[in-house]
Amino acid sequence: MKVVHTIEALRDQMRGQLRASFVPTMGNLHEGHLSLMRMARQHGDPVVASIFVNRLQFGPNEDFDSYPRTLQDDIEKLERERDVYVLFAPNESEMYPEPQSYQILPPPDLGGILEGEFRPGFFMGVSTVVLKLFSCVQPRVAVFGKKDYQQLMVVRNMCRQFQLPVKIIAHETVRDADGLALSSRNRYLSPEERAEAPRLYALLQQLRQDVLAGASDCVALEQAAIDDLKKRGWQVDYFTVRRQRDLLPPSPEEMKEGVPLVALAAAKLGSTRLIDNLEVERA
Ligand code: PAF
């Protein structure tokens, strides 16, 4: 695997190659990321991965400074897996040589809800860096995890609106045996918090089961999950059922008609904010 830190070196490496299958990451790679790389490979060689902790998507009170940066470890993991042809690991001045005054603003009805409500500017930061990374790598396909469900939608819609020639592939969330979705932020959890953390997924599963069994009062189902989490000391940002197609709440008619749904949750355990989601599709 070649490791390059500049756009020029990346372009040198990619000269004469087919357009890549691309996996953008912020590093601190875990099994979830490695599985994205494997899926990228199935969509065609060469695979390009990137590691860049993107300041633009962090709020002023978020964990940009403490975000785990483990480049050497990440390189070793990727070398072992042998899926990646080039790792692009730019530093900040390579990606942002001047203040980023041109920015991609997702529409408020998608980028301003859920994560966008609790992390203002987050989807602007993600969209802007993803567009820049696409412009550096010029991939044919790019793989994103469903764990960041809204991010996946924002990126898909951006590609559609800007007619970017990149096919976005969704990868299922990778979980620990107890159901906790893998995330670089899980390492912030204390042992007690780690034991409690799978509760978020368990409640998403419970809600899914209730909807599949015919429950149609979303507000009551959401409130039951929120109350349960609060009782156990979580601080809940949202726990909500939305339509898959646009992440807006389903109407009572749509609940009856069986419109494809997704339950999404974000909540803090101690100082660690976890997000998760689960699709709910009735036959
Ligand atoms: O999901 C992530 O790791 C980041 O949001 C991404 C897509 C690499 C952009 O910085």
From TrEMBL:
Catalytic reactions of this protein: (R)-pantoate + beta-alanine + ATP = (R)-pantothenate + AMP + diphosphate + H(+)
Any one Pfam family match given in the protein's UniProt record, by short name: Pantoate_ligase
Q: Where is the active site?
A: 33 (proton donor)
Enzyme class, one word? Answer: ligase
UniProt binding sites for beta-alanine? 57
Question: InterPro entries attached here?
Answer: Cyt_trans-like, Pantoate_ligase, Pantoate_ligase_C, Rossmann-like_a/b/a_fold
Please name the GO terms that the record assigns under molecular function: ligase activity
Family statement: Belongs to the pantothenate synthetase family.
Q: What's the protein called, per UniProt?
A: Pantothenate synthetase
Lineage runs: Bacteria, Pseudomonadati, Pseudomonadota, Betaproteobacteria, Burkholderiales
